[in-house]
Fold this protein.
Amino acid sequence: MANAEVTEEDIAAVVDVMRSGRLTMGLQTEEFERAMAERCGARYGIAVNSGTAGLHLLALATGLKPGDEVITTSFSFVASTNIILYAGAIPVFIDIEPDTYCIDPTLIETAITPRTKAILAVDVFGHPADWDAILEIAQRRNLRVIADTCESLGARYKGRPVGSFGDGSVFAFFPNKQITTGEGGMIVTDDEQVARTCKALRNQGRDADSSWLAHAHLGYNYRIDELSAALGVSQLRRLDSIMAKRKQVADTYNALLSQESSVRTPREKDHVNVSYFVYVIELQGSHTREEVMQKLEERGIPSRGYFAPIHTQPYMRPFLRGREPHCPQTERIAQRTLALPFHTNMPTADVEFVVSALHDILNR
Ligand SMILES: *Cc1c(COP(=O)(O)O)cnc(C)c1O
């Protein structure tokens, strides 16, 4: 994965760690956790070695058990559903809002059964889910809420930062995300019990006050190392500038594509501030996505079909237990969404090149 913004300061921060002799479980991890919690307006941050690891720990810390049902979305990266399966719980897929691509809160209540324990919502492509609507239902029906904010670091919902909604939120720092640590992730939460459990489980099940060889729980090694944490601290300091640059690239795409009748550009609800993760258009005309991707490829322009619905992935078959989820919007939209080249420092000339190629292909 190329194209992450890595500066001389970032490099110096990592080199400092290498000279310090402390390569894991040190001050950089603590500082990264503190800074992320502060940024999200949350009490606790728990750094881990991937977004997936963070989601897995949050699922366990919120008490998901085998046989529990979790209402979630199929229009996401597979990890958001996989972690439900890791806990032995059952994902129950409901449909998405056609404008934001996030889980449709009006469909949640019809999916609740006596076995429903939690809602797992995703801020798709950096657009916050409708958190107030989700939390209102969760409170009334006594459900836990897991927020997969792996794509939305820095975004706001009704003025509040993502990461401050639900029982806990998880961010990811793979190199295509807004900020990177190479590999890495972060759980943020206000819940002391959730924080304590996540901390123990990431460190082989050791409680905070137990000795190195005392393991209170069945845990994992999901620790982040100090080099990654130092990179995270350094990158997080630049988050606002990184987000502004990404918005600039998205705005340029939006302006250049505004006359293209067969392209729907990303929506942004009035009450949110999107933090752009990818730039995804929805094809409206008669061209199939595969045809457009193929023709872009012939011109040397890589694009991706973000996302294939999770419930249509081959490995998911046995987990569906013969029940076909009813997600017509997800299935319709997933055939038409296309992620165009997008990164923090993408030059305007490159955006123009992509748009002009797309124009040729769509109007031929
Ligand atoms: C990136 C991402 C993850 C997982 O992050 P990793 O760090 O790659 O494990 C989870 N959920 C969503 C929606 C993501 O986009």
Notes: Residues 239-363 form a domain with the Aspartate Aminotransferase, domain 1 fold (CATH 3.90.1150.10).
